[in-house]
Amino acid sequence: MNIKYYYNYVAIVESGSLTAASRKLRIAQPALSNQIKTLEQIYGTRLFYRGARRLELTDSGRVLYNKAKAIIEMENEAKNEIASSFAGVSGTLRIGVGHSEINPTLYRALGMFAKEYDGVDIRVTEATNDVLQRAMLTGEVEATFIRSTSEPGEHCEVVYQNRNRMVAAYLKGSEYEKAFKNKEAGAKELSEVPLVMINEGSAQLRTLIRRAGVNPHFRCICNNSTKTTLQAAADGVGVAIVPEGTIAEQGYTNLAYTPLEEKLAPMPTLWILTLKKKFRSPIVENFLKIYAKEIGIELTGIE
User: Fold this and answer.
1) At 81, is the pLDDT very low, low, confident or very high (cuts 50, 70, 90)?
2) DSSP class of residue 186?
3) How confident is the model at residue 102 (pLDDT cuts 50, 70, 90)?
4) For residue range 124-171, what is the model confidence (pLDDT) as tens digits?
5) Is residue 278 within 8 Å of residue 261, measured between CB atoms?
6) Which residues contact 208 (CB under 8 A, 6 or more apart)?
7) 26 in the Ramachandran plot: left (φ > 0), alpha (ψ -120 to 50) or beta?
8) Residue 33 vs residues 48, 211, 232: alpha-carbon distances, Å
9) pLDDT tens digits, one per residue of 242-290
10) Are 255 and 234 in contact (CB under 8 A)?
11) What angle do CA 157, 289, 78 make, to 5 degrees?
12) Helix/strand/coil percent split, the chain, to 5
């Protein structure tokens, strides 16, 4: 069924005659008459009583009139929603965030996005790096923010990457600060203080320190939360082993830090990823632009 028939049918009913509808629609009267006959054939019933001056609806015709108006309204709503979605002003923002990337900077960007695009819902999925990369394949998330020493999967398109040195972060003015007198922290310095670290990478660091002939003391192993690790350092629990960039991202101005010797800890990379060879919605592009502006970076493939 051509939906134009419904538009014209409603116009005929509301105009009261074929002549008036023909002038309004700028469609020849015989063509409108044929459309009515087609509708009557499709629905198997008479739609009008044809009087001398005005067309009067039958009961069936009134039912079709009400349904036609509803169909037209649904089509107009669909057009508006699709146009808004394409413009990035309605729909849902779906992003994935690694455990170490839940930070105030990200949520400031989300807040700015929510204010500018109040018609867009926001869904944030927090998970491990592998789970988030798989979630892009299923469409559960459209962009992911992760930090890892490993290269992302082949299906991922890199929008942004930034390598960070691992550092020993400690409370300013604390007793732990005295252990770090050199420009870089080696195995000896790390063995002299209690360490706080996420589970990932802790076993490797422990092994490398022991190879230097000293034993480290891991006072606190956090599951996968860099924020928890930094908070422990800020509370004086010990010295946090974290990527350098996370200290500013998490807003810990009361922490000082010393870079680790690179042989002790591989440099992790902050990755912002989308799905390779797939259309990126305007919604996610709008958010990534806001995020990039907030932290002062340039993204690849997003203008």
Assistant:
1) low
2) -
3) confident
4) 999 988 999 999 988 899 999 998 888 998 999 999 999 889 999 999
5) no
6) 187, 263, 264, 265
7) left
8) 11, 93, 80
9) 999 889 888 899 999 999 998 888 788 899 999 987 888 889 999 999 9
10) yes
11) 90
12) 45, 25, 30
| Inter-residue contact 253 to 171 (CB < 8 Å) | no
Is residue 146 within 8 A of residue 271, CB to CB? The reply is: yes
Q: What is the DSSP letter of 223?
A: S
What residues contact residue 96 under an 8 Å CB cut-off, 6+ apart? 124, 125, 126, 127, 132, 135, 136, 140, 141, 143, 144, 145, 146
Place of tokens 């960007």: 109
How many Å apart are CA 96 and CA 133, to the nearest integer?
9
CA neighbours closer than 13 Å in the CB half-sphere of residue 82: 6
Residues 181-219 have pLDDT tens digits of 999 999 999 999 999 998 877 888 889 899 989 999 999
Question: Is residue 171 helix, strand or coil?
Answer: strand
Measured CA angle at 295 (ends 291, 296), to 5 deg: 105
Helix (H) or strand (E) holding 253: none
Residue 27 confidence class, pLDDT cut points 50, 70, 90: very high
Residue 63, token pair as written in the block: 């039912």
User: Within 13 Å, how many C-alpha atoms sit on residue 209's CB side?
Assistant: 23
